[in-house]
Design a protein that fits this description.
The chain is built from seven helices and five strands, in the order H-E-H-E-H-E-H-E-H-E-H-H. Strands 2-3-1-4-5 form a five-stranded parallel sheet. 50% of the residues lie in helices and 12% in strands.
């Protein structure tokens, strides 16, 4: 049910997606987390695992945001985790982004292309050797948010499909 979705999403993130994503995108990975509660959970997990990363949320001081963005751009920090509300309030272009993992689809559909285009620009400018990679975690309970990003027709095909992953070009 809906109450168990947060736990199932976190388990999938920890056990399946994060190991694969960090293997493919070992550097300049931006993780966008829609809710602050999930953000804290992801941050605490990464701290427990001694992963090298930095965070930016709506509560991060401007000085810490500047430091995190600079280190991420320079490659000193391979992973930057941000909240959707951070993007809403600050609207920074996170330079150096070569891969994006959406922990869940953004509630505001406009954020998806804004964030993806930053990563695409970095790849197009020659900053990345490989094509830009974007992952979005979703469940059937994310249907409304996904419909705003993908459209109803594409969403219906995805939700009916037996495949666990979908590629969009």
């Amino acid at each position: 049910g809906p109450a168990a979705q947060a736990d199932r999403r976190f388990e999938a993130f920890v056990n399946e997606l994060l190991p694969k994503v960090t293997e493919v995108a070992a550097s300049h990975l931006l993780i966008v987390v829609p809710s602050y509660l999930d953000f804290v959970r992801v941050r605490n997990f990464m701290l427990e695992r001694d992963m090298t990363f930095d965070v930016c949320s709506e509560y991060t001081t401007p000085r810490d945001v500047a430091r995190a963005r600079t280190q991420f751009f320079a490659g000193l920090v391979p992973i930057l985790v941000i909240t959707e509300r951070f993007h809403f309030y600050r609207r920074y272009r996170i330079r150096g982004t070569r891969a994006v993992l959406f922990y869940g689809p953004p509630e505001n559909a406009a954020y998806y292309p804004e964030i993806v285009n930053v990563a695409s620009t970095a790849a197009r400018d020659g900053a990345a050797a490989a094509a830009t990679r974007i992952w979005t975690m979703y469940t059937p309970f994310d249907a409304l948010a996904l419909a705003r990003v993908l459209g109803n027709e594409r969403l219906a095909l995805m939700l009916k499909s037996p495949k666990r992953s979908h590629l969009f070009v």
